[in-house]
Amino acid sequence: MANDNKLQNIIGHCKEYGFVFQSSEIYDGLSAVYDYGQLGVELKRNIRDYWWRSMTQMHDNIVGIDAAIFMHPTVWKASGHVDNFSDPMIDNKDSQKRYRVDHLIEGFAETLDKEKGDAMLQQMDQLLAANDFAGIKQLIEDNKISCAISGTCNWTDVRQFNLMFSTEIGSVAEEANVIYLRPETAQGIFVNFLNVQKTGRMKIPFGIAQTGKAFRNEIVARGFIFRMREFEQMEMQFFIKPGTQKEWYEYWKETRMKWHLSLGIGADKYRFHDHVKLAHYADAACDIEYDFPMGFKEVEGIHSRTDFDLKQHQQYSGKKLTYFDTDINQHYVPYVIETSIGLDRTVMMLLSEAYKEEDLSTADKQDNRVVLSFPPMLAPVKLAVLPLTKKDGLPEIARELIDQCKPYFKCFYEEKDSIGKRYRRQDAIGTPFCVTIDHQTKEDQTVTIRYRDSMTQERIALADVKALVMDKIKMF
Ligand code: ATP
């Protein structure tokens, strides 16, 4: 399956089975905004839970918060977003189409042989790091990089565009203040640093975790739920003693990579990408990239943010944001290591990894299936219970089993169509376990359990089903 096709097939599959829909589809959609359907919402919630529990429950020095999306407008001045949160863009004068210059150049570099492409990307990184926009334009012109729509190289100068959405707060227009939809969740953590540290009696090193919506007016929004205008982040800010940032940065790189590998995804599908151009707040930064159908792309960023954010908020608010370290009897503004992962991108990563079209044909029969082989702990539905027929008391036994299991995990009941068809439908939504209730169940209290990935079946005691599934969906 070509990778382009794979992405299209995943998008089609997500729509067909209720994972992801285009927002406002009956009005022809809203670009780069998506809704999660009945199965997508379960998958997303399971990933969020796993991240949340990995961060907070499994680390006794990390606690969570849930800050509001709206924040005081000065927050974004202090954080640098009002002045710096922009991407260099270029417009094609003939088609009027606007491109992010890094995307335009990356797209072109992919068409070159590897050595030439890498050299071009390196040159681009250096020019961007130096904010040399004239040089970037020259690079585009020298290589005759053209617009995909007009086919011409008639470009404007490279300019910066701010990505924040703004709106107004206040009931009377004249009195209203401009506020922003947060472009990241991190600032809600920084402004609550002292609240949490004091009320939670937290000792450095400690972390604050948060999940929630973020908004960016992405100019070039593409790649399904990879790049959205409204998306969800899962962020953790880890507050440390100044001078220890290198070791904590390495610690979090390693810890986060372990988390990714715990999703059952092979190490060959991930790589680190160190940033050449560092954001205004960072002294080291890298991305964890996953090999999506469209190539290796960022899923998570790990940033050593120094004391930039707390110092800025201290300066703009006039409030002290220091910590008294009793070990050394000193006040200081803590340094911060951030781990920031996109929830929607993680959904897309898991879909890309799980989606398989399998040819099951034998010499005398053509057969195939689409299966989503999610890790059982993240699958939207854990167990399907299927009575062989609609009569003879089999549905009642099935319902009883579901009643027993549903307080613990998500179950699904179905009695329509042949068992084979029902198995295929469960494969297509990634249900790891199917249990069939048949006439033998009435005699000896056993059932057939069928495993999604191997498609093998075995007979087990009805009374053991719940414990078996619980064991296989354990997160830790
Ligand atoms: P990119 O370079 O892809 O624009 P970024 O470096 O700006 O991403 P960060 O600011 O580090 O991203 O945000 C942290 C994480 O949030 C990213 O790793 C990504 O998973 C997610 N993210 C950022 N922007 C978007 C978006 N527009 N849609 C979906 N997820 C996003």
Describe this structure in words.
- By secondary structure, the chain is of the alpha+beta class.
- 35% of the residues lie in helices and 26% in strands.
- It has helices spanning 3-16, 40-57, 73-78, 81-84, 101-109, 114-129, 133-142, 186-190, 193-199, 245-261, 308-317, 343-354, 394-405, 419-429, 439-444, 465-472, and strands at 20-22, 34-36, 62-64, 86-91, 98-100, 159-162, 166-169, 177-180, 206-215, 230-240, 270-274, 284-292, 295-306, 323-325, 330-332, 335-342, 355-359, 368-372, 383-387, 411-413, 433-437, 446-451, 457-461.
- The strands form 7 sheets. It has a 7-stranded mixed beta sheet with strand order 3-9-10-16-13-12-11. Strands 20-19-21-22-23 form a 5-stranded mixed beta sheet, sandwiched between helices.
- The longest helix is centred in the N-terminal third of the chain and has 18 residues, at 40-57.
- Bound molecules: adenosine-5'-triphosphate.
- Adenosine-5'-triphosphate (ATP) binds next to strand 10, strand 13, strand 16 and helix 12.
* Helical residues, percent: 25-40%
β-sheet strand percentage: 25-35%
Shape assignment: globular
- List how many beta strands DSSP finds: 23
**In CATH terms, what is the architecture of the largest domain?**
2-Layer Sandwich
Number of domains: 3
Sheet/helix structural class? alpha+beta
The order of strands across the largest sheet is 3-9-10-16-13-12-11
Q: Largest sheet, described in full?
A: 7 strands, mixed
Q: How many DSSP H or I helices? A: 16
What is the average per-residue confidence, as pLDDT, rounded to a whole number? 95
| CATH class descriptor of the largest domain | Alpha Beta
The value of Rg in angstroms is 26 Å
Tell me the name of the CATH homologous superfamily of the largest domain.
Answer: Bira Bifunctional Protein, Domain 2
User: First CA to last CA: what distance?
Assistant: 34 Å
Question: Which distinct ligands sit in these coordinates?
Answer: adenosine-5'-triphosphate
